[in-house]
Specification:
2 copies of one chain form a homodimer. With about 180 residues, the first copy, chain A, is α+β, with helices and mostly antiparallel strands. Helix content of chain A is about 20%, strand content about 45%. In chain A, strands 7-4-9-8 form a 4-stranded mixed beta sheet, sandwiched between helices. Chains A and B meet through strand 2, strand 3, strand 5, strand 6 and strand 8 of A and strand 2, strand 3, strand 5, strand 6 and strand 8 of B.
Chain lengths: ~180, ~180
């Protein structure tokens, strides 16, 4: 079965600082014509950072789109030309002030494949080394430490409202549960 | 600590069929002014539908934003005025042709709180009852049945490229693992 949607034309609507928007007119496999509203995103990383006390380092920040303050694992956008693992160390440093001597790739996934090309690379960071805290100018973030197993339970129980945080905690737990 | 970002002004950029885009100028708690690019979305549901053979019903479809064919759990947008559980039954019917006599809410989460307000409601559907297949006109989707435990292993191993599918499978497994 051929699923491919062929682009007939593409119209750029908006080019912003973190995302762009375009509308593609596409021809479906059955010959019908449709439109696709597509948010272009550079991709991102997120890190489950666990310290020597088996606590996970999380960040509390206001998320304007949701008009609420959310508790999430550290994350951020890929800069131009930056690899995911370099980005993961940079974001971990910027958001919580640590470097992970042991940084392991866990998974990658599209956050919302229905309307965006954002691909998120998820990492498990361990053997954390304290660096000086330097938060982004534009962000008001507060670091919180939560016992890892408690956070995992919260993720399974639907207590976190952020998708990447749920995936990060559950996949990290699956990865290291034999060792803890 | 007060995190709230106050909206100074809001500019609508685009109003589409599945999403809208606006740019808010905001005042941060520290007094700085910044901009937030926000994708408005009506919200969505996704369903982990497990049949009497312990297979999970998934859909394969082309996702134009990713220019690839993805295997996902059934999902779809909330229609105006529709509750999440009504939407879950409708989408399950439209995408895989089944109704779930046992439909249980698992969790809700923001898919990308950094740039969108999309809130996704996740359900576990069991005791499936076959209805006539009626796929959306606009979608070319193919239903696939995968043994549930195999799909869960794939999710933990990072084999699925769709965030809601990973969350759905891992949370559903956590929910019913004592019974299987």
């Amino acid at each position: 079965m051929d699923f491919v949607e062929t682009t007939l034309n593409s119209k750029k609507i908006f080019t912003g600082k973190i995302l762009s928007l375009r509308v593609d007119e596409v021809k479906l496999p059955n010959g019908n014509i449709s439109k696709r509203e597509i948010v272009e995103h550079p991709g991102a990383v997120a890190i489950v950072a666990i310290n020597e006390n088996m606590e996970v380092l999380m960040v509390k920040q206001y998320r304007k789109p949701t008009e609420s303050t959310l508790l999430e694992i550290p994350a951020g956008k890929l800069e131009k030309g930056e690899t995911a693992d370099i980005c993961a160390q940079r974001e971990l440093m910027e958001e919580v002030g640590f470097r992970a001597l042991d940084m392991k790739f866990l998974a990658k996934f599209y956050t919302t494949p229905g309307f965006s090309n954002e691909l998120l690379y998820l990492f498990l960071g361990q053997k954390l080394e304290k660096k000086s805290k330097k938060a982004d100018d534009d962000e008001n973030i507060q670091v919180e430490k939560i016992p890892f197993l408690e956070a995992v339970k919260m993720a399974y129980d639907g207590k976190f409202l952020d998708a990447k945080t749920i995936i990060g905690l559950t996949l990290a737990y699956h990865q290291i549960k034999e060792k803890i």
